[in-house]
Here is the input.
Amino acid sequence: MAIDFKKGMKMQVTIDGTVAEAKPEERLVDLLNRTGTKISQVCYHPQLGPIQTCDTCMVEVDGKLVRACATPVQAGMEVSTKSGRAIAAQREAFDRILGNHMLYCTVCDNNNGNCTVHNTTKLLAVEHQKIPFQPKPHAVDSTNPFYRYDPDQCILCGRCVEACQNVQVNETLSIRWEDPHPRVLWDGGSTIGESSCVSCGHCVTVCPCNALMEKSMIGHAGFLTKLPKPALDGMIDLVKRVEPDTGYSAIMKVSEAESASRESRIRRTKTVCTYCGVGCSFDIWTKDREILKVEPSEGAANGISTCVKGKFAWDFVNSGDRLTHPLIREGDKFREATWDEALDLVARRFTEIKTRSGPDSLAFISSSKCTNEESYLMQKLARGVIGTNNMDNCSRYCQSPATIGLFRTVGYGGDSGSIKDIEKAGLVLIIGSNTAESHPVLATRVKRAHKLRGQKLIVSDLRENEMAKRADLFLHPKPGTDLVWLSAVSRYILENGLAHVSFLNEWVNGLDDYKKSLEPFTLEFAAETCDLPIETLKKVAHMIVEADGVCVLWAMGITQHSMGSDSSTAISNLLLVTGNYMRSGTGAYPLRGHNNVQGASDHGAMPNFLPGYQSVDDPEVRARFEAGWNVKLPTAKGLDNHEMIEAIHDGKLKAMYLFGEEISLVDSNSNFVNGGLSKLEFFVVQDIFFSNTCQFADVVLPASPSLEKEGTFTSTERRIQRLYQVLEPLGGSRPDWRIIQDVANRLGANWNYQHPSEIYREIASLTPMFAGVTYERLEGYKTLQWPVAADGTDEPLLYTKRFHFPDGKARLFPLAYSRPTDQPNDEFDLHLNNGRLLEHFHEGNLTYRIEGIREKTPDTFVEVSPELAAERGLQSGTWVQLISRYGQVRVRALVTDRVRGKELYMPMNSSESPVNRLTSSHTDKVTHTPAYKETSVRLNALPERGESPLPRINHRFGHPTPQHGVEVERKWKRPDYRVPGSPMIIHATKTNGNGH
Ligand code: SF4
Ligand code: SF4
Ligand code: SF4
Ligand code: FES
Here is the structure.
């Protein structure tokens, strides 16, 4: 019966004689899975779409054999999954697969209940294979530190290729189907170690068997898999010998018993990544404290995706140099202390200092790596127990200006929508963000939309980073001038009748004043100030107004300037002028750097806001918290991070309590910062390692990393997610929330939180923005995107009905331009930019403890343009001294065309040569975010020549091989290919129902 769903009616198909209801545009394989029809499907993965390499999903539709994965459902279809022809085709297809794969499941580390090849053998009740296993003439490749490829076990399903080409879009993998013995190739035939592979792990995650495996699993998952190779080979031979007599079912029973017994020792625990703000979540597989692997599958932000850090960078939790005892300073040394001793000392000194110099002589810095509940408790301790608003977190160093830009214009200080909304944009504009390295998984979604769906991409940056190389248009403005070109583009759009007039009329206030403020921003002025051609600026304007939805992504290339807040505001102004808010595929996306930098600010770790951005000087708000906490709260705004350092130097601030923050390396002008820290009368640092900052401490408290505690993180999408405890706290370390509670109670508070869920209950009761957040609503992989109403309704996309101002209208915010600080002159003639690297997180305290990352990226460096290198006689590996107005460092040069002319770039991952010895104390005027990106230096070449700071095995030296996914059509053209179940060779046509 054919029924058209578009007319609001149901679409029905018949499956093996039973009528089922299909969803619009559903693939047949998905319908079969949804309705519980068992069907083999080795190469199909819902997040990859149909690849069509395995042919095991053959079914009969209206009498014809088709691949269920590539067949869109149509009304009235008669589907038979169990006809003789269908079964024969499925079996034949799978037989070919077993010709490429030896079933030695009992001694295989992939035998954990989720091996697709194993499970398909069982599903199809294979007893004997007709096509014998044939080893391939290729060696195992173990040259990547994190995973290995075994061609002999590779069934050539191409999932890995599809994932690498079209999900991660690193375009490293391919299969040359024309080869006599095809295998997966890295960069067309390199070793994995020397290829462009960024070790994101997508390929390993989706591999349906053991051909690609995490090295951490090999020899560790099974009971018998650690046997010496000769013994293992012997057992594999035995399996081969008995199979003709016993059949596979008997062998499978043994392997399944072995697999079942693994369940008792391998734990799978859901967690949320501790690195960047994308908010990837995944299961971590552990055996006691051993981390076997990370398995991403259903995370709301990431699905099967991770970057190298989320997938492979967790061994730091077992590092031998974890802090496991409190430490107390004695002269120049520290001694181990008991918790009682340390906590008593903290309480006594805090009390003394508060009594003598008042509560505002103490300050508190929360961690954007720790949980929401921990930030909440820290600010409750500062405000409710000590009585000061001197409370901040590291969003001061990066994201506060973006928040201000959005507060001024649209009302909420967070991303307008979700990563899924960015994917839908007609145009993505990335400004001052090295997205592929700093927010890798989010970048994959942009790369994918650009590659597969024709999304347009404009990138404005000083460096030609990966996104810039991919962009349709790359702008390279002069440092610190983004506000000018953004405003000039807005002016051009308004002047030339290109603005979204009806949107402005209905939804936006302040147009007249804004227009007046744009007077100086002519195209000519912008061209000269920014060093961008007028035609380019016009092109940007036209691309924006012609696009079906624009999302702007920005990060520290915008915010870490003396005009960071104003430049962020200029972005939002431009979006308003062009009507790019209020629907999916539009909006403002300041990309939050740390895993919980959004959450730390959201939960009150700020000098002017209680949780939920409720102002400390609002009496009504204070009254609510005072009643809830049973205390009297301070009324005046406190000191931010920047002001705290100044206040220490001025002798006004005497004591500080900081947790999970490497302030001595990551704050700007580190010589000045460290000078301040050394003047503190009493300094408590809480961390998992003895960080650089600990050197200045009087008491060091050993904390637990994310895997050793429960709580919630909030990602850049405003997405709140639960992390579950994977491991017990190591040694005497404790979760930060417990330590903060212990300190508070020693100071007379009477807190009695037994679990972070109790803390969240309190947060929700006091904070309208989180009213409906509960641990039950966040169970497992469930998430909520704030604001969350009391009934649990959240807002993945903001501003669908109104902007967050009393009249519901957005506001254009007039701006003026001032020149960047710390400009180059004859003495300091080079501009120094700085930022992250993909593989190291921030200063590198965690990632330098990962051997594989250290092997590929052992040190920091300074990127020098080929022009400058030629002028100064530099090569990659030449040691240079960089001297700024504030300090100096010694570092090796890396000559690369990623940077141009007299612009340098230094990654921030170093404790020996931290870039912040060079940066200044200039700040954004509104938020006091340091102007890290406004630094001038001079460069002295030193006589020493070293090796290149990046070894040849770094992925940046690889040569990707972009292609359209796995290109199965080339397989179908092989002379020996025949569609299973068909008597002759059929050249199929690829239709994947996926739009690509
Ligand atoms: S980049 Fe490397 S790890 Fe990532 S999918 Fe490609 S080959 Fe696999
Ligand atoms: S290595 Fe790639 S092609 Fe081979 S079985 Fe694994 S996912 Fe399939
Ligand atoms: S670092 Fe960021 S992109 Fe990488 S896995 Fe973690 S959250 Fe995802
Ligand atoms: S599942 Fe492999 S071809 Fe359909």
Confidence is low (pLDDT under 50) at residues 1-7, 984-989, 991-996. Residues 163-164, 168, 170, 172-173, 197-203 surround iron/sulfur cluster (ligand 1) (CB under 6 Å). The longest strand covers residues 936-945.
